[in-house]
Amino acid sequence: MLLAVGGLALTASPGGAQADERNWWPLWVSRTDPSTGDERTSFLGPLGFEQTAADATTIHGLRPFFDEAHSADGSLTATSAFYPLWHRESDATTADQRWSFFNLINFEHDASSDVTRFDAWPFYFSRDTGSPEDSYQAVMPLYGDVPQRFGQDRFLWALFPLFGRFEKQGVTTTTTPWPFIKTVTGEGHRGFEVWPLAGHREETGVSSDSFALWPLYYRKQAGLDTDAPSLQTGLLPLYALDRSDGYISETYLWPFFGYVDRTLPYQYHATHYLWPFWVQGQGEDRRVNRWAPFYSHSRMRGYEKTWLLWPLWRQANWNDHQLHHERRQLLYFIYHADTQRSLTQPDAAPASKVHLWPLFSSWDNGAGRKQVQALSPVEVFFPHNERVRRLWSPLFALYRFNQTAPGEVRHALLWDAVTYARSEERDRREFHLGPLFGYTSEPGELNLEFLGGLIRFNRSTPERTWQAHVGPRPTSEAAAPLSSR
Questions:
Q1: pTM higher than 0.90, yes or no?
Q2: Which residues in the chain come in under a pLDDT of 50?
Q3: For residue 266, which of 241, 232, 300, 238 has the smallest C-alpha distance?
Q4: What sections of 291-380 are H helices per DSSP?
Q5: Partners of 326 in the β-ladder
Q6: Do residues 373 and 361 touch, judged by C-beta distance below 8 A?
Q7: Which helix (H) or strand (E) holds 353?
């Protein structure tokens, strides 16, 4: 059962345990994984790497400076330099392209719609669609007229924040300057605000929103055209009220004393003392017992969470689709463990991923695949960023363990200076101490190598005689032995 817990980056000590290895550490180490056909090579310890998959796609680079990915026809599909400082991606099939400099200067071309975007945050924004109606070039703070962006239908500014105009769902808010003076117009909408002194805006017959000396006094009404309008009002810190259909919340001497009483769409009642620190609540499929920061326990719609001495220890349990999740954290990332169990196959082994920062990370998919890395200072922060994990994580991999299936394992120490692989399926053992010594054992044959294979001893059964070879390894080992006995 393969559960949704991602593994570690594999480029530092990649491939299955069955990999046949040539070890000239630290200059280069190469091996082929017969289970996948992947060829993997590392240069200068963890710095240089190259991987060629069975489908002829390749990835190579020099950590942490750059990497490149090529398709089977040799086309460059992705590259980066000092990632995440700069990276570029392209799709040979769709001709889409994008590149980014630290996610601040971004270029993107969507070939299917022939749309090009270029931004240099927070100063320059542009989009070219071929149509002047939804194309733009904008310079912050000088001038901009930008449609369908920044959460607005249109955002127009000149010498911002001196002048700005926001349009969304037929409502126009003009600010001169932002955020202090605002005028609201639109069909059925009107309003004027001098923040934080006073302001009022309304949609005739539908909603009303006022404040004075914000946030000391506020009053919001919505749903005035319905049978159950809502009201939010407060004169802080004396009193606050939030009321809607089936719900009421009142606070006295905010935030010291208050309660919540809900009857729709579910039943729930809670009492607050110095909210949000002390809360006692209970209702349909939910319960809150919070005495923060000392202890907090809550259960809401199947999501159960416990805090001890926040933020020291956190534990959470929840169900998602056909999986049960459990997460345990010490100071968020010092210790971080995720476990997943199948709800439909309760007897199946769980999948897990554990980080003890920065000492090690381990991964078990519950179906026989396991990985361990020490040291591991970046895995917990970038669990889903393959490029960060490919370029940075292997630099710290003093020790690596990889099991592709039970009995198919590989150990690597000091970036492949010392490696050991075992395959129960092939009844094969392989050990390398850099180029100094190598040992391979498989049914009917035993091989010893010294100095990267320049001196080799071979013994095969049933003769059980040793053969010695000196010199570079030929294409075939059928060359005449130096001596035998």
A1: no
A2: 1-5, 8-19, 476-485
A3: 300
A4: none
A5: 317, 339
A6: yes
A7: strand 351-356
